[in-house]
Amino acid sequence: MADGLSATEASRPPADVVRSSPGRSLWRRLRRHRLAVAGGTITLVMVAIALASPVLLRADPTTIDVEQILAPPSADHWLGTDDFGRDLLSRVLHGTRLSLQIGFSVLLVTLAIGGLSGMASGYFRLADAVVMRIMDALMAFPAILLALAVMAIAGPAMINVVLALGIAYSPRMARLARAAVLTVRSRDFIEAVRALGARQGRILFRHIIPNALAPVIVQGTFTFAYAILGEAALSFVGLGTPPPAPSLGNILADARAVMRDAPWTIVFPSLALSVTILGLNLFGDGIRDVLDPRMRL
Is residue 21 included in any domain, yes or no? Predict the structure, then answer.
């Protein structure tokens, strides 16, 4: 070539274009967002501690020690013990781990039921007439009451908690996914792709769903937090994870009778629950701001 560049070099994209790819640009904005960084850090720390708790702690969260009943925080029991002499630190960490597991499982169920059905109803009119009427009927009940009703029928068990909360939070996810698909479906580039003869499946999975995922991802982070709080509420009233498995909800329920004499039994599990939900909410707020096109102006 006249300018001395080979055909291969001339065909390469400029360096600034490579550096400003969508993935890198998203990661750069995410790192600069203080709420997202703070929330993500808190969430990762809680997840890491919860996952490492079986290795780091030798105390069994279900072991009863009648000689250590309601022992205050000390070198032997950093967070004290409960009314059965069980190590509270071990119970809180195992309870946090269980809450994170249930929250993530509920998120998957919500995405499977609400997310997929919402996207299908937003693209196919026949599915919209059927699916959204079912979701509207479910939305007539508050989420926690709907979950309580399902648990009262199914009985307390971990799998039932996941299904109950997944069903309870699916309608809101479905409506959000439907609205996102309808918004993308009406854009000009979708009409152009359709005019070029693309098949329905290619339009849906290649063009519509990738461009409609942003609000679904944001709602997913909040659903994760709602599920952890919902599981704690169900366990608190005796309809969640059954004892002796430690859950933040049943730990708080056990602490009601002794919280005046042993305030540490309710302070530390409440703090673990609050910090976990705070981290997820901060991360969700940051993701929402980063994915919002109006924040890029």
Answer: no
